[in-house]
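1st attempt posting a full record on here, be nice pls
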Amino acid sequence: YNSRKYNSRNNKTRNNKTKKNTSHGKKQTGGKTNFIKVSYPSISPNEITNGADLTLYKEQLTNPSVEILSSVDMKYLVIMHDPDAPYGMNSPDKSKNNEFLHWIYTQENSKSMTGKEIKNVILPYTPPTPPYGIHHYIFDVYNYNSILENKDNNIISRITEIGKNGNRSNNTQLIKDLEKYKIPGLTFYYKVSASK
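the predicted structure (as tokens):
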């Protein structure tokens, strides 16, 4: 496609959307807000809108920067996952879909980190390559301190094992089990469609 023509035609609209809703947040006690922003240096504008359709950019979606701002500093567990793998969100039989893990890492305290700055990687980043239909790519942030303090060895051992064997597929149960550790407001997603 002609990226220059597309950017020129849609620049104003996308910039306005980005300014209005570039993060997904939830107010906490004291008026503070938890939010997460995701940016890809290879696309413009770098900072993408929560819920955006990035189908036209899917070949460029490598090594994003992730900014986490939270009312409480802690150790975070960040997981990028696709609940629509492999057949897409509109599959007639969604029971055949299962969580695919694209990225797992931990970080200390809230801040912005580029892909290169993220050191505590458990499962290396792999970009979206949807084979069928429309897929959601979700960034969820969990309270890793609580996982460790609760001695939830089941989750810790499963995540460790995934990091060792690289098993990205069929992780729906893990995402469900992690739900209780999810930090309110720290969720971000975008959509990508498979090539026709």
